[in-house]
Amino acid sequence: MVFSGIPFLFFFLPVFLILYFITPDKFKNAVILVFSLVFYAWGEPVYIVLMLLSSFVDYVDGLLLEKFAEHKVLRRISFVTALVINISILCFFKYAGLAVETVNALLHLKLKVPDIALPIGISFYTFQTVSYSIDVYRKEVKAEKNYFSYLTYVSMFPQLIAGPIVRFSNVQERLHERKISERAFVHGFKRFLMGLFRKVLIANQIGELWDIIRSAESRSVAASWLGILCFTLQLYYDFSAYSDMAIGLGEVLGFEFPENFIYPLSATSITDFWRRWHISLSGWFRDYVYIPLGGNRKGVLKHLRNMFAVWFLTGLWHGASWNYVLWGLYHGLLLTLEKYLWGKKLEKAPSFFKHLYTLVIVVVGFGIFTFEDLGELAAYFPGLVGIGNSAAAASDTLWYLGNYLPVFLTALVFAFPLWLKIVKKLEEGNAYRKRLAGICEVLLAAGLFLLTMAALVKDVYNPFLYFRF
Amino acid sequence: MTISDRVSVYLICVMILVFTASFFLGGKKEFSESENRYLAAFPEFSIKHLTEGKFTEGIEKYVCDQFPERDSFLNIVSEAERLSGRKQIGDIYLCEDKTLIQAYTKPKNIEKDIRQFGKLADALDNAKVYLMLVPTAVSIHSDKLPEGAQTQYSQSETINTIYQSMSGKAECIPIEAALEEKKAEGLLYYNTDHHWTTFGAYIAYCEYCRAAGYEPSALSDYKAETVTTSFQGTLYSKLCDSYFGADEIVSYSHPDWDLKVTYEDSSEVSDTPYAAEYLDKKDKYSYFLNNIHPLITIENRNAPEGAVAVIKDSYANSLVPFLITDYRTVYVFDTRYYKGGPSKFINEHEDIKDVLILYNMNTLDNDAGIGGIY
C-alpha cells in the first residue's frame, strides 16, 4: 500500500488511528504491528515471509550476542551468520538478475537470467535489521527481548517501504514508553499532509512532464536540460515527501524519526549536498562501512579505496542496474575532488556560483540516475550539449514549460528555503498579517486536500519510484 | 502549534471521515455515463488472486471508481489543469473554440496494416478494392492546435507509406486535399469526439464515388435532420470537464430509400441505418449502424444493381448511409467480430463488385479489427 492512495487515506489510516488511540498503551505496539503487517502484505502478500525471516534472524542474533557477552568467538560467529543471511537475502532477491546479466555480457555466455520480483522495501528493512545487529554487536544498544517489539520496529508501516532508515536506538525507548500528545498529533499530521500534497500535487505533475520530455522523439538543448531538471525535482519531491509523510506519521504515533532531507537542492557543494540528501542512508554508509574501513584516517590511498567502496555501494543500493553505480561513483569522485582539489576554493566563491555549481552537478547526476537503460542514457546526453538535437530551436521548451508552468515554478520555489524567510518576514510583528496568514493556511490546506483527493480519485499519474530501491 | 495548524488538521480529519462514511453509506454505480465505461466492481476473492496481488489491486480500483462524488472530482482535476494553462492533457489538445483534438502518436504497426490489406486484396477474385485512410482532426485542423503544440508524427506520411505499398493491389483514395478544401464550409469533426461528422463523411464519400467512376449524389438531395444537440463524445469523456460543451449530430436520409437493414448476428431487421435509441444514451455515435455488429446487410430496393462490401472501423458508420443510395446491397463487416475474414463471403457473392477498406488514422495503429481482415 502507498500513502498517496485512496485505500490508505480513507480506509487504512482512519481505522488504524482510531483503534490506535483508543487502545491502552500496553497494546499500542500490537495495533501497530498488526496494521503494519496488513500494510505490507497488501502489496507483497508472499514476500512478507522474507521480512519476518530477516527480522527474526537479527532478533535471535541480538539475544545471542548478549548471552555470549563474554565469549568473543561465539559472539563473532553469531554476528557474522546474521550478517551473511541478511546480505544474502538482499543480494539474491535484488541483484541475482544483474549479476547473471553482467556475467553473460562479460563472458559472452547465455545463462538464464533469473526473473525474481523485487520485494518492496527490502533494501530499507535489510539495512535496518543489519544496523541493529551491528549496534548490538558494538554494544551501542541493548538487545530487544521481545520479538514482537522488535518486529514492530522493523515493520512499522510509516517507514517500512521508503525510509527513512530508522535505527533501533531512534525508537527503542519509545517502543516501550510511548509519549502521545495532541501537540504531536497536530504537528505530525500536518507534516504528513504537507508530504502528501508535495507528492501528489508537485512530484507527480513534474514527473508527468519528465515522462513527456523523455519520450519525445527529439529535444532541443534547453528541453534536454529542462527534462533532467524535472526528473531531479520529481525525485526530490517524491522522495522527501515520502520521508515527510513517514516522519509525520511517526510523530502522530509518538515516535521521533530522524530527518532525511534538508533542502538538498540548495546545497553549496556536493559535500554539503550529501549532508542534506537522504541523510539516513548516507549516515548508514558512513557509520557501518566508511568509518569501519578507516575513513580518511589511514592515508590518502586507503581513503580513496574507502570512498570508492562506499560510493560504489551507495549507487548499487539504489537499484540493480549499472547506471546507479555510475551515479554513485560520479558523486564519490566529485566528493574526492572537493576534498583534495577545490573544496577550499569553492568555499570562498560567491554564493551564486556555489549554488549553480552544485545544482548543475546534481542535475547531471540524476540524469545518469534516471536511465536504467545505458543505451537510452547514451542517446539522451549528447542532446545536452547540442549534438543530434532537432532543428526546432527551443519552441519545444516553451511548449513544455507553458503546459506545466505553475507547478514547475511552485516546485522551484519550495525546493529552496528562501520562501520560509519571506513568510516569516511578512508575518513579523504584524498581528493582522499573522491572522490573515492563519486564515489563508486553513483555506489553502482544505483546498489542496480537495485537489489531492481529486487527483487520487482520477488516478492520474501516480508512480511509486522506490520499488527499485 | 498555531491555531490555524489545529483548525486545518482537524478540518481535514473531518473531511476524511465524512468521505469514508459516505463511501459506505452511498450507493454504488455499475456504469459511468460521463466517462462512458463500466466502473470496477468489488473484486472476487480467491487465494490465487490474493497471492498474485490482484485482489488488493482490484480493491484499489474499486474504491477509486466508486468514490463518492467521483464525477465532481474528475471535473475538479480537469478544471484545475485547464486553468493552470495546460494546452494538452494526456493525448488531447485543448484548442480554441472549446475544440478537443486527439494527438497522433507514433505508428508502430504500419507493416502489419500493409500486410493485412494486401492479403485481403490478393484473396479476392473479382471485386475491385478501394483503400481509404482518413486523416483526423489533428492533421486537417492543425491550424486549430494550440501554438507550439509538439506534433511529432505526420499522418500524411503514414498514409503515403501505406498507399505506396498498396499501389497495384488496391485503388488508394487520397482525401486529405478534399477535406482541407471543404473545412471552411462546415464542421468536419466533432468538437468533443474523435469521429468525423456526417458532413466530413459526405466529402469522403464524394471522393470514393469519383474513384469508383460515378457521380455522387448531391447533399441537397438528402433530408438533413439534427437528431441531437447534446453529444458529448469520447474526448469529452477523457477529460470530464463541463467547460467543453456538446456537439450536434446531423443525420442524412434519402427520400428514395426503401431499405431492409439486417443485422446478421441478431437477425434483427430494420428499415433505417440509424438507431434512434442511442440518442438518449451517452454513446450517441452508435446511432449510426446501431453500434457493433459483425455483419450488416443493407438492401435498397430503389438503388441500381450491384453491391459493395465495406471493411472498416467506426468512421465508416457515418459514411455507409451515403453508399446505400448507390448500391442495391451494402455489406458492412466489423472484422473484430466477423470470424475467418470476409474474403470468402465476398468471393461467394458475385454481386459484390467493389470493396471499400476504410480506417481513420488515429486508431488504425491499434485497431483490433486489422487482424481479422484476413
What can be said about the biggest beta sheet of chain B? 8 strands, mixed
Q: How many helix segments of chain B? A: 13
Principal-axis shape of chain B equals globular
Order of helices and strands of chain A: HHHHHHHHHHHHHHHHHHH
N- and C-termini, Cα separation of chain B: 71 Å
Helix content of chain B: 25-40%
- End-to-end separation of chain A: 16 Å
Structural class of chain B: alpha/beta
Number of domains of chain B: 1
Name the chain pair with the biggest interface and residue counts per chain.
A-B, 53 and 45 residues
Order of helices and strands of chain B: HEEHHHEEEHEHHEHHEHEEEEEHEHEH
* Average of the residue pLDDT scores of chain B: 92
What can you tell me about this protein's structure?
The complex is a heterodimer of chains A (469) and B (374). Chain A contains 19 helices and no strands. By secondary structure, chain A is an all-alpha fold. Chain A is globular and about 70 Å long. The two termini of chain A are 16 Å apart. In chain A, 43% of the residues are buried. The model of chain A has no long low-confidence stretch (mean pLDDT 91). With 374 residues, chain B is an alpha/beta fold. Chain B has one domain. In chain B, 34% of the residues lie in helices and 20% in strands. Chain B is built from 13 helices and 15 strands. In chain B, the strands form four sheets. Chain B has an eight-stranded mixed β-sheet with strand order 7-6-15-13-14-12-10-11, sandwiched between helices. A three-stranded antiparallel β-sheet of chain B has the order 3-4-5. A two-stranded antiparallel sheet of chain B has the order 1-2. In chain B, α5 packs parallel to α7. Chains A and B meet through α1, α9, α17 and α19 of A and α1, α3 and α4 of B.
